[in-house]
Amino acid sequence: MRSALLVALLAGLAPPRPAECPRRVCTCAGWATASEAAQAADLVFVARAVSVRDTSVTDSRGSGRAPATFRFTVATLAVEYGWKGLPPDTLDLLGTGSGGDCLMGFERGRRYLLYVQASAGQLSTTWCSRSARADAAVRDLAALGPPEYRR
User: Fold this and answer.
1) Burial of residue 63 (number of CB atoms within 10 Å: 0-12, 13-18, 19+)
2) pLDDT for 51-86, tens place per residue?
3) The whole model's pTM is what?
4) With 1 labelled, which of 22, 54, 56, 145 sits at a CA distance of 20 to 30 A?
5) For residue 114, what are the contacts with CB-CB under 8 A and spacing of at least 6?
């Protein structure tokens, strides 16, 4: 699982428009509209963070280099409703970590609008994807229209 989390982190897919993530620690590309972001995503849904825990991944690749340990959070999310794809009822997503990453920061109990990519069996999202806290994504929620499913 730890190597899968590292793969998900290192595989970062960048959309084609420049933007800055809200934490201002990274520069990434972002989508201009909710519609563009939804087209690029594999899954689009609203979920509540039911738990957030710390984890770490050690990367010992490369000869002659000391292993590097990266610290992250993993959020367990309960899917409430969505527009694209059918995620499981609950899922884990990698969150903010050490260094200048653009991963989402999750807080227990908060709701999020998530534009998620699936790659090699792993799900991931970043600030670059337009993912945001649901209370800050009112325009995106309106633009997406009525959800296709509810749980």
Assistant:
1) exposed
2) 999 888 787 766 667 777 877 888 999 999 999 999
3) 0.75
4) 22
5) 43, 44, 45, 46, 47, 77, 93, 104, 125, 129, 131
